[in-house]
Design a protein that fits this description.
The complex is a heterodimer of chains A (123) and B (109). Chain A is mostly beta strands. Chain A has strands at 3-6, 10-12, 18-25, 34-39, 46-51, 58-60, 68-73, 78-83, 92-98, 112-113, 117-121. In chain A, strands 2, 4, 5, 6, 9, 10 and 11 form a seven-stranded mixed beta sheet that branches.
Chain lengths: 123, 109
């Protein structure tokens, strides 16, 4: 069965960096895109962008350029989200979500989700 | 960017029908996906491409999309359906390309 297992909660100080992992299993990793979605405390879902797991090409949504980096290690079927220069407003749960395919618009269909990783930024 | 509007809350008695709307400009021309999120859990896809149901999702969940409104309908509502529900569309002319509605809290009375 399809599973996405994310790394554990992180507590970071402002200005630090964090790298969240999302390990996939139960399917061919490079045949489905990976989306990243943010949920701030008590708020709704916000799409951060996606990465083509076949080509490694990332696409970032407005507001998630510069400090946010999507990457892959296809040898271990894992996607990564790295956030640098952390700010208090980055405090949120970050989800990886498998796309329905590897090309748009199927890639935007989030058919399976990781359990979420809470990143807390506090001094 | 493209805007999706959902009512913040919907309440329904057990056994009745709940309808959760998602409004957007000419949303009927786009494909809509719906997600259910229970407290402390990750979202789960319940309807995709307007009206298709993933395997494992009860037939009580259905979707429609026309004009400026998409609707998620939950028939014979159960206590376990209490959750937040989000609609999602993609719009290649918008940034971000993928937009979620603000979410609707379904309360089972």
């Amino acid at each position: 069965q399809v599973q996405l297992v994310q790394s554990g909660s992180e507590l970071k100080k402002p200005g630090a960096s964090v790298k969240v992992s999302c390990k996939a299993s139960g399917y061919t990793f490079t045949s489905y895109a990976m989306n990243w979605v943010r949920q701030a405390p008590g708020q709704g879902l916000e799409w951060m962008g996606w990465i083509n797991t076949n080509t490694g090409n990332p696409t970032y949504a407005q507001g998630f350029t510069g400090r946010f980096v999507f990457s892959l290690d296809t040898s271990v079927s894992t996607a990564y989200l790295q956030i640098s220069s952390l700010k208090a407003e980055d405090t949120a749960v970050y989800y990886c979500a498998r796309g329905g395919g590897v090309v748009v618009p199927a890639a935007y269909l989030c058919d399976y989700w990781g359990q979420g990783t809470l990143v807390t930024v506090s001094s | 960017s493209y805007v999706l509007t959902q009512p913040p809350s919907v309440s329904v008695a057990p056994g009745k029908t709940a309808r959760i709307t998602c409004g957007g400009n000419n949303i009927g021309s786009k494909s809509v996906h719906w997600y259910q999120q229970k407290p402390g859990q990750a979202p789960v896809l319940v309807i995709y491409y307007d009206s298709d149901r993933p395997s494992g999702i009860p037939e009580r969940f259905s979707g429609s999309n026309s004009g400026n409104t998409a609707t998620l309908t939950i028939s014979r509502v159960e206590a376990g359906d209490e959750a937040d529900y989000y609609c999602q569309v993609w719009d290649s002319s918008s940034d971000p390309h993928v937009v979620f509605g603000g979410g609707t809290k379904l309360t089972v009375l």
